[in-house]
Design goal:
alpha+beta, 463 residues, Immunoglobulin-like, single chain, seven-stranded antiparallel β-sheet
């Protein structure tokens, strides 16, 4: 009996000990991840659209703890470690999850002034407190290998009191994705700062960020700060290509059909041709800045290249057709090809516009493009139809008889006088077609007298 009681008491003691050990371990982990006493250096961007805090655990040679915050209206936020420029920096990029209630953290490495590439070798764990909190996205994380990357080519110096860092935030567009390689638009605000790594070293844990309006930088120094940057090249590419596809090229056909203004048609299309080359060149240039377009394999890019080739063929066909027509005053076999290729180019250009805006992460502008098409194309068609209707009515009224003709000599169908309707080319101007010339009314005796005069005399004979 005593033996049984002793074993029962021993089991209870062991169970209690294990429970206390588990509780102590959980409390210790909680202190590591959520402690308000964790060391940390804090940076807040001038527009207050990004806050970043870093902790360097004194008992680890590999780990880093950090907290990254940005407001709900900002599409993405990022901090680059170890450099004052994008090339070679390890970038911790955060954006909203697909649900809009959590945060996706994508570790990326940049090779220059272009969209950084997701790097799966960098391991980042999400910790408690990550998510959307009162309109602010928060990512609390631990990175297990963020002190060195690219085989040592990139690193941070934990002993530095002024470690170079960069930061950037996106514009107010919407980005929601669970993918680690979600496509980005160009940063809107960006800059540099230095961070005191010594001040950030201490007990491990996620450092605290003061979210009050009066919060200030802690052991960090603001460097370069730029706000309101836009991708001007992409903007100009879109404006130019929409202008020529929806505006200039259709207008060139419109003026040719409206008034047969061949010269103005050529000038308009030549101007559109030059703008197309400029716009296409901008498109080729910006393709290398974004991961989604670097391989030049999207539908928008393929169609754009085809259009770029077609416009050279179209310009050559139009030039040689017009040159031949001026010499022969006859149409050529190039004319129908030129006409139909022009129509195909316009259709392809419009379709490519609808493909381009989603590629640029700006699908909302498809509504603007659709509005321009629905406004401009029907107006031009209505004007041409009205012109055809008026011209048809005019020709019909011109050919209808109107009674007595005040100028019968101008008729060409033998209706004037009694002639056969064919004018005598030797007849004086103003002479009626059906009336003989006055010279035919010479008196008979004058003609006979002229015949009796005999041959013409030579004056030399009388000398």
């Amino acid at each position: 009996m005593k033996s049984t009681l002793t074993l029962s008491q021993l089991g209870l003691a062991i169970s209690t000990t294990l429970s206390l050990f588990t509780t102590f371990t959980q409390a210790q982990d909680a202190n590591i991840t959520l402690s308000n006493t964790a060391a940390g250096s804090v940076f807040i961007s001038p527009p207050r659209d990004l806050a970043f805090a870093l902790n360097v655990p004194s008992d680890s040679k590999t780990d880093l703890y950090f907290s990254l915050m940005f407001p709900e209206g900002t599409s993405w936020a990022a901090v680059g470690l170890g450099s004052d420029r994008m090339a070679g920096a390890l970038i911790l990029l955060a954006y909203s999850s697909e649900s809009g209630q959590n945060v996706t953290l994508s570790p990326r490495i940049a090779s220059g002034h272009s969209e950084p590439v997701f790097t799966p070798e960098i391991k980042v764990d999400a910790l408690d407190g990550t998510g959307l909190n009162n309109g602010t996205f928060i990512f609390n994380g631990r990175c297990t290998n963020c002190r060195s990357w690219l085989d040592g080519a990139g690193k941070i110096d934990v002993a530095s009191k002024s470690q170079n860092m960069i930061y950037a935030t996106g514009d107010t567009s919407t980005l929601k994705s669970d993918s680690f390689d979600a496509p980005l638009r160009m940063h809107y605000n960006y800059g540099t700062f230095t961070l005191d790594m010594v001040h950030a070293t201490g007990p491990a844990g996620v450092p605290t960020i003061d979210r009050s309006e009066n919060s200030t930088l802690v052991a960090t120094t603001q460097g370069l700060s730029k706000e309101g940057k836009k991708d001007v090249a992409a903007l100009m590419h879109a404006i130019i290509m929409v202008f020529v596809s929806v505006g200039l090229y259709p207008f060139g056909i419109f003026i040719l059909r409206l008034g047969s203004w061949v010269r103005w048609h050529g000038i308009n299309q030549a101007f559109a041709f030059v703008l197309t080359i400029i716009g296409s060149s901008l498109g080729f240039s910006i393709s290398k800045f974004y991961n989604r377009s670097k391989k030049v394999n999207t539908a928008h890019q393929v169609i754009g290249i085809l259009i770029f080739i077609f416009i050279f063929a179209q310009f050559a066909l139009g030039f040689f057709h017009h040159r031949t027509f001026k010499k022969t005053q006859q149409t050529t076999k190039m004319a129908p090809i030129h006409v139909w290729m022009g129509r195909v180019i316009i259709v392809m250009g419009v379709v490519n516009g609808f493909l381009g805006f989603p590629l640029a992460q700006a699908s909302q502008y498809n509504y603007v493009l659709a509005g321009l098409i629905l406004f401009l194309f029907p107006i031009m068609m209505l004007i041409l139809i009205t012109k055809m209707f008026i011209q048809k009515r005019w020709n019909k009224s011109k050919n209808e008889p109107t009674g007595y003709n005040m100028e019968p000599w101008n008729q060409q169908n033998g209706q004037a006088g009694q002639g056969n309707g064919v004018a005598n080319p030797q007849q004086p101007l103003g002479q009626n077609v059906g009336i003989p010339a006055m010279s035919t009314y010479v008196p008979y005796h004058a003609q006979a007298r002229k015949a009796d005069l005999g041959p013409q005399q030579n004056t030399q004979e009388y000398v």
